[in-house]
Amino acid sequence: MSGPRVDGDASRIGGETGLAALSNRTTHIVGWGHEVPKAVVTNADLEQIVETSDEWISTRTGIRERHIAGAGETTASMGAIAAARALAVAGVSADSVDLIVVATLTPDHPMPSTAVLVKEAIGSHRAAAFDLSAACSGFAYAYAVAHGFLTAGLGQRALVIGAESLSRVVDWSDRSTCVLFGDGAGAIVLDALNLHDDQNIATRPGTLSFELSADPSGAFALWIPGGSGDPLIKMDGAKTYVYATRTMAAVATAAIQRAGLTVPEVDLVIPHQANLRIIEHVSKAIDFPMEKIFVNLDRYGNTSAASIPIALSEAVAAGRLKPGDVFCTVAFGGGYTSGAFVTRWDADPAHGARAAAVDPSTIKIKRPEGGAKAAEVPAALKALLDAKGR
Fold this sequence. Notes:
With about 400 residues, this protein is of the alpha/beta class. About 30% of the residues lie in helices and about 20% in strands.
C-alpha cells in the first residue's frame, strides 16, 4: 500500500536524503543508557489526587504507571546518569566527547543550560554543550543536529540526551493532562563513521535518513505559557491527537523512503511513547505489525524528549535489536514539531551490561546557594512521594 505523505508545506531539511553533504561519512550509535526516578506513581495513586481511575486512564492511553522525580532528582541529574551509562556502554571517556546536546523542555534553569551541568557532572572538559527545545520531538532533532556536526567534520563523538522533569510543569489538578506524563532521561553516544566507496545507503551501517518538520498552526494546542503567570502544560487533547495520528505515520513513511527502503524492510519501529491508541493508529496507517513496534509507555507514560532514548535503551536490553537490523524512530510534539530517523544498527547489544558499572551516587549536579528550587517536589505530590519514601 502507498503510505501517507508529509504535507507539501511542512518544513523539510537536508535535500533529498535528509543527510549531510559528505557522502563518505555518516554516524552510528555506539553507546546507550537511561535513568528514571526511583518513585513509581500508579494510576491508583493518582486517584488520591484527582478524580480519575485506573480503568479511565489505561483504556484511553495505555498508561498504568509513571516514574516521578523526587527531591534532588532533576532533568540534569537524570541526564548525567543516563549519559554516564551510555559512555560506559561505549567504552569511552567523557573527555573523548566533542559535543553534548540535551533535548528538553524542562531544563533545571533557563540559564545555564542543562547540557553544561551534565558536562560538569560526568567529568567532561572539552565538549561544546547546549540545550535544544523541540518538545517531544526533541531527541530526533538533537540526533539530527549531532549527526550534522559530526558529518561536517567538526568532531568525532557526541552525546545526545533526552531528559525531562515533566512532573514539575504539570497541573496536578487537571486530570486530562496530569495522568499522561512522567520523568526520566535517555542518552546515546553517537560517533562519526567513515564509509567505504562501495557502501551505498541500502546496505551501509549507521544513520540512513531523517525527516523533520514543524507546523506553527498548532503552537498553542500544546504549550506552556511564558512570563510570570501559570507556567504549566496546557493541551487541546482532541486537536493534538488528530495531528499526532496523521503526522507520525507520514513522517515515519517519509524517513523510510528517504533511506531507500520500504516499510517491510524495517525491523523495528520505536515511536514516541505518548498514547497507545496513537501508536496503534500508526501501525495501521503504515501497515506495520504492532509486534514489531516497541512500546513501554505502560510503565513510563509520556516522558517527552526522553521517551525515544529510554525506549531505545530498553529495546536493546530486551534483545529487540541486533547488528544489521534497521530501526525507525518517530515522534511528534508541541510546536507542532515532528521528527524521525532511520538507522541500521551495528553495535553489540551485549555491551549494554557495561552500564551496571556506573554508580549514580557519584554523579553530582552543582547547585548554587538558593538554586535548589529545580530539585523540589510539587506540593500536590509531596505527601504521595513521602508515603513512598521518596
